[in-house]
Write a structure and sequence with these properties.
The structure is a homodimer. The first copy, chain A, is of the alpha+beta class and about 325 residues long. Chain A has 7 helices and 15 strands. In chain A, strand 3 and strand 4 form a beta hairpin.
Chain lengths: ~325, ~325
């Protein structure tokens, strides 16, 4: 019998379609890997080609002074970084000028690697870059909301091989994020006890244990009870904090460990699947909000959203979250 | 300069990325058409193979008694039609048994056609089938919400060639649909004047005219001001009515005409793109709701949702809605 599970964090129901369910191994595919070179003369993200990008806004270097992470404005930005925001309203047609910030985080000088395979300290560098740029973006008073995300592979919306992620600052506060805040604010635990929904939910997942994939001193990684798609993983910080930018220097290496571990389990277990990850967060000004909690969501793109999902916002998950978690726990990855 | 437009119906902002924008023609692709046969011996939806499907729940026939549309339970249903709903709650883990209805509308006996190419009276038959099944689904007291949708092509989530659409009755009311109702109920026009947001919005689109693609006595088809993707088209009934199932016998042929016209403009103009369409509606019991208005949304799948869309619910549209509408208006399609 299928189940319909409520995702208390998003307010969305998910159909766990056990009758259609596949075994976890069935999602594994053998990918046709083009033999990418370690360096590509035409890639603007490769070492030696730094002049092909707009002027960088941030960089970290290794002990020999070579850059490990560079952040540059996106040449094909969806929003324009210059100008003031003009608002226009003509009855029900309302718009703002498309002013905002959009940068690319180049995650490695090497062309043919992927985040899962980077050394831990390099993943830490990426996380430090995210923190720096998120805070800088929110310093721009035209920015209302900042989203950090990664698109890995064509099904996840990128055709660039060179490992990179992105950060966008929008001049509006997204309706979907507002809906999440509403869910958290009107939740029973917050309304009655002032408890953060996310903290309460995380405690439940930890105690139950069935869907936990990994845990360390500062983070818990688990497949959500109402995961919207197979191998969907959430990484929650144990310390209550609504803003990613307020992550501490102690927490960064712990996040690098658990992020690498999860990405590597997906890479080995499912054959380098396409995926997106996003960091959901409020602004530094909202860091102390009791009702929100930043987190990182990883969504492998193994299934397609079709008319049902478009028309209802409900997803049909053809895997059992408990089985996805068990499968991921058992992927042999060796020492990180 | 890009624009950020508010979709007042959904509450979501959309980035109209004019800097990245393509000309409408650039979305056209020449599709590799496999030469499908008119009849496939292994296809359960083809004439002569009726025994391969579960027992049909509805059919319409032509003057010679041959079926034109059949509706059958989905063999690979996401929900199970038998059983009672059991609710379980364990703290923040809440679920229902996956009981619900899921049927397939077989749109034609012919294997190798597509909805856009069917005669008008056959499209009318499909719309009559939708009406009948929607009302029947809502008669089942276990059903809380019904969605009618079509997936055309692999990028839209189907691999079956034989033209078909689907109807699902879920035992829960989707959070996304609830959010839409909230938008409509708290809208300025409804709060202050008791006016339907959709009626008001449709009037604005008609008066402005820039994004209108087609119109007849009963329906208006237009690219929404804040279209979330290229060539996104909404078909609104002019008569205020919250439930598709209450569409009249006069309105059905008018909807068939405008639906065929839009699908044909997409087929000819863009080279048979993959698309989804969905009919958003309340139940017959809610048909008189002043704040909601059923409509049909067509979403060509020409771009991919990536991390930005996942993390914000905001879409980046690389076409200007006014240009999409003009392009569609000018596609030569001849008489219907």
């Amino acid at each position: 019998m299928p189940e319909v599970r409520l995702n208390q964090i998003t307010g969305d129901w998910v159909i766990i379609a056990t009758e259609r369910a596949k075994r976890p191994e069935e999602f594994k595919h053998v990918r046709e890997h083009s033999a990418f070179p370690e360096h590509s003369p035409s890639c603007p993200f490769c070492t030696g080609n730094e002049a092909m990008t707009p002027a960088e806004t941030f960089r970290l270097t290794d002990d020999e002074g070579r850059w490990t992470v560079r952040v540059v404005p996106n040449k094909f930005s969806a929003l324009t970084p210059e100008g003031v925001i003009v608002k226009r309203r003509d009855d029900l047609r309302e718009c703002l000028s498309g002013v905002g910030l959009h940068e690319v985080i180049i995650e490695s000088p090497m062309h043919n690697t992927t985040t899962a395979l980077l050394p831990l300290n390099r993943i830490g560098d990426i996380l430090v870059a995210y923190r720096h740029r998120q805070i800088a973006f929110y310093d721009d008073e035209r920015v209302e909301h900042v989203i950090i995300f990664k698109n890995h592979g064509e099904d996840a919306g990128t055709s660039l091989e060179h490992p990179h992620s992105q950060i966008v600052g929008t001049p509006v506060f997204p309706g979907q994020v507002m809906n999440r805040l509403n869910e958290a604010i009107r939740n029973y635990y917050y309304v009655n006890f002032g408890d953060c929904l996310y903290c309460t939910y995380m405690k439940g997942e930890k105690d139950d244990g069935l869907r936990v994939v990994s845990e360390n001193e500062h983070f818990l990684a688990f497949v959500p009870y109402a995961a919207l798609s197979p191998f969907h993983v959430w990484i929650y910080p144990k310390r209550h904090n609504a803003c990613y930018g307020h992550i501490t220097d102690d927490e960064i290496p712990a996040l690098a460990v658990i992020l690498k571990e999860i990405l590597l389990r997906l890479y080995v277990g499912l054959g380098n699947p396409d995926y997106n990850y996003v960091i959901r967060s409020l602004s530094p000004g909202g860091a102390d909000a009791k009702y929100f909690h930043w987190y990182l969501a990883i969504v492998p793109r193994l299934t397609k959203a079709a008319g049902f999902e478009l028309g209802t916002g409900m997803y049909i998950n053809t895997s059992l979250p408990e089985e996805s978690a068990e499968f991921l726990r058992n992927v042999p990855i060796g020492a990180l």
